[in-house]
Write a structure and sequence with these properties.
Strand content: 5-15%
Number of strands: 2
Strand order of the largest sheet: 1-2
Mean pLDDT: 88
Distance between the termini: 23 Å
Helix content: 10-25%
Radius of gyration: 17 Å
Largest sheet: 2 strands, antiparallel
């Protein structure tokens, strides 16, 4: 799973790869004191409803188009 990817509903936290190490053919968690919803941001929490995301007349590059997709203005 990559940063920003949707998290399946049956997961209750995310373990960053920096907090793991591979031991033979297993994964060891090096910082095991995880809390529920740790490293999970709720859907819609990155941009508040009604927020201005772009300025009028702003030139659209790939980042701006991606932002508009994220907030549901284009698909």
């Amino acid at each position: 799973m990559t940063t920003g990817a949707p998290v399946p509903s049956f997961f209750n936290c995310v373990i960053p790869i920096e907090h793991t190490e591979q031991v033979e053919n297993q994964i060891k968690i090096t910082k095991p004191n995880l809390k529920e919803n740790q490293y999970i941001r709720p859907k819609g929490s990155d941009i508040a409803t009604g927020s201005k995301v772009l300025e009028k007349g702003q030139i659209l590059h790939s980042a701006e188009i991606g932002l508009l997709c994220t907030v549901g203005h284009i698909s």
